[in-house]
Structures are given as C-alpha cells and as structure tokens.
Write a structure and sequence with these properties.
The chain is of the alpha/beta class. The chain has seven helices and 15 strands. Strand 4 and strand 5 (about 50) form a beta hairpin. The longest helix has 12 residues, at about 55-65.
C-alpha cells in the first residue's frame, strides 16, 4: 500500500553534469508510488556509444526507497540529452507520458530526418498523451498537467502538490529562461507560460530541468515562485512582455545549437527508443546536412 497521503511531495533530484540536466523522482515516502521526471540516457557523440550511468542512479534511488514506478514523465522532446525513459520502463515498469502536442513536434522532425511513413506522428510511441489541465495520480499524490509552450510547442509542466516540474521554461534566477529558437518555439508564448507559472502561490517549489551554474555555485535543483518573481534576470516582476521578447530573440540569435540536438531529437520523439536496427543489426542516427 502507499505511504500515508503526503501534502508535501518528497523529491530526489539527480544532476547529470555532462548535459546539465536534473532528473527528479517524486514520491510520497518510502514504499509509495512514484514518478520519474526527465531521465537521461548517456550518449557520447564522438563514438556514438550509449551508457546508462545516469539512468542507473535513478534505479538505485528507486530501489533504495522501495518505490513503485507508476509514471515516467517527459516535459518535452529534449534537444540537449537523450531520454532513458524506454530503458527505465523495461527495468522498473510504469507508463511513459508526455504532452499531447508532441504530435506537432513529431510531424516537424519526421520531415527533417525524412523518417518515412513507417514513423508514426500520432504520439503512439508514448503510453499516454496528457491534455492541458488533465489530472492524474502518482500513488497517493494528485498531479495536474500545465501546458507551457514557448520553448517548444509541446512543453508541459507537472504540478504535484506544492511542487511543479517545469521542464525548459525557467532556470534558476541567476541563469534566466529557456531559448525559443527551435521549430515551433516563440518568445511571446514562453512569456505567457512563465507568467502563468508565476501566478502560483509564492511558496510553490519549482523544480528545474536544467541549471548552468556560474563558477562557484552548486547546481540548483529547486527554487520558488517568490524567488523567481523577485530575482529572475530575464523575467522577474516588472519586466514587460515586449522587453522579454526583444531580449530573448536577441540572445537566441547568438546561441550555438545544442551539442546533442540531432541524436537527441531522433530518440526523444520515439519516447526514448533508438531507431530500429537495419539489416546488419546496427541502429543508426541520421545527420541531415545543411538542413538546420
């Protein structure tokens, strides 16, 4: 049985320093049902090799607390790391969930990578597609889906009690906000999504998907609505939508593409599955030349 209902969800946060990604395990105490949010599959782009060091740390945390995995939640199709969702589901169970707008992202990248008619763009690679406002349970915990597009069209956040797992919208206050220059991204849309998040109660805990800490600061897995409203360098209270959009578009024009965007997207639109093996038994990731 689940542990007693917890009004304050407990969260284990694991940081991957290579991709600067947090994976979170949210639960109601030892022995309860849990959800894994944004798990990382390690990938070396120089050799094309995958490994499961980061994912095994998640397994270890789940087993240490005797948790039951009910959900493996993706906030969006990440461009900076490959997802370990499929590998974790095989070992721990649970259902892989993502926002229903993933279908739009799949349609775009099916064209970019020329994946052909055999690649479904209906989201069927995932076990569940969440609609905005949809409620669901993680063991004894109640959760609600928030659609927060802008970084991509498919971004969603998961609100679980006083905790929100917000993907690539906000970073810690001294880092700012997510880029908006991927297909379907839009700075004005991101501003509206962020303001909706910042209308939540001031003490709401906001769990980061990423942190890129300046020298001397440890990675920060969680902030609060209050801290973001008073201190976020890009979008604190008093910064108008027009100023944010101008800043975000100017800044995005200077950013290099993420190192892992091409392999990551091909895997993540498949719910963490690698492309099917070819007739020699080897799986291949495509590299579109002069396409992006």
């Amino acid at each position: 049985m689940d542990a007693a209902v917890a009004t304050v969800p407990q969260v284990e946060s694991l940081f991957d320093p290579v991709t600067c990604t947090f994976t979170h395990v949210v639960h109601a105490g030892a022995g309860s049902g849990c959800a894994i949010v944004d798990p990382v599959l390690d990938f070396d782009p120089k050799s094309g090799r995958t490994s499961r060091v980061s994912a095994q740390r998640v397994v270890d945390a789940v087993e240490r607390l005797s948790l039951r995995v009910e959900w493996i939640l993706e906030t969006h199709a990440h461009a900076d790391h490959l997802s370990a969702a499929r590998w974790l589901r095989e070992r721990l169970g649970g259902r892989i969930g993502i926002g229903a707008s993933i279908r739009a992202v799949q349609s775009v990248f099916a064209q970019v990578f020329n994946l052909g008619p055999e690649f479904a763009t209906d989201g069927s690679q995932f076990d569940h597609l969440f609609e905005p406002g949809e409620a669901f349970r993680i063991g004894a915990l109640e959760a609600v889906v928030m659609h927060v597009p802008g970084h991509t069209p498919a971004d969603c956040a998961y609100r679980v009690g006083d905790a929100v797992f917000l993907g690539d919208t906000l970073f810690p206050p001294d880092v700012g906000t997510a880029r908006c220059d991927f297909p379907g991204g839009d700075a004005a849309t991101l501003y509206r999504s962020i303001r909706a998040l910042l209308e939540l109660p001031a003490q709401t805990r906001l769990f980061m998907c990423h942190d890129y800490p300046p020298d001397g600061r440890a990675p920060c897995p969680v902030t609060t609505v209050a801290a973001q409203r008073t201190g976020n360098i890009h979008v604190r209270d008093g910064i108008a939508a027009s100023a944010f959009v101008e800043m975000r578009e100017r800044r995005d024009a200077t950013l290099a593409m993420p190192v892992l965007i091409l392999p990551a997207i091909q895997v993540n639109i498949r719910a963490g599955d690698l492309p099917p093996p070819e007739d020699n038994g080897v799986r291949y990731l495509k590299l579109p030349v002069d396409r992006l």
